[in-house]
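User: I'm new to structure prediction. If I give you an amino acid sequence, what do you actually give back? Let's try with this one:
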Amino acid sequence: MKHLQTATLLAAVMSTGLMAGLFAGFAYAVMPGLDRSSDRTFVETMQGINKAILNPAFLLPFMAAIPLLALAAFLAWRGQGRPALPWLIAALVLYLIAFMVTSGVNVPLNDQLAKAGDVDHIKHLGTVRDHFERTWGTWNVIRALLHTAAFACLAWALVVYGAHRPNEGRSADPAAGPAFRAPYDPLVFAPRSSYRPAPGRQTDGEIK
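Assistant: Good question. You get back a string of structure tokens that encode the predicted 3D arrangement of the chain. For your 208 residues, that looks like this:
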């Protein structure tokens, strides 16, 4: 159970981190870069990106993060790592809100841009661009912040989980002490003042 819990938590951290990095990259690099381009270049580029991004490398972590977060929270509730449960729930809620932003705002805008057709046949490129860029960019920043906050909660949950996980080879009860104790040799560990040689043995300054 503990191995499944650890693996699930790590997978959730990785998938959430990938999404946070992707949307943040759009917010601070891709969209500001396209803002300097012409209307034709902007519309054509975003149409191409929206087609290319629908691949397993994006869809797998994007869709898998929700069940992974739910499973991680369930395993924390049922097993070890309960102190991490509030952070896992917070990460799940933040990710769900970000997911709804993507599916409710950004994806419909992508579909509208695709339906506009080829750039050679769009009559009002500037209008199409303005409607898409302003709304899509604003909500992309919002979902990037939500995904980043979810990733931060997950990273802290991983720290809390590791801090409260019992060490291997030790008792889960701190009062019980180590599960394994090395043999005790009184000749090695006894204080010097309490050491008395056996009869007949030579010691410093003595002759047998």
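You can read the tokens as a compact description of the fold. Here is one thing that stands out. The CA atoms of residues 13 and 155 lie 7 Å apart.
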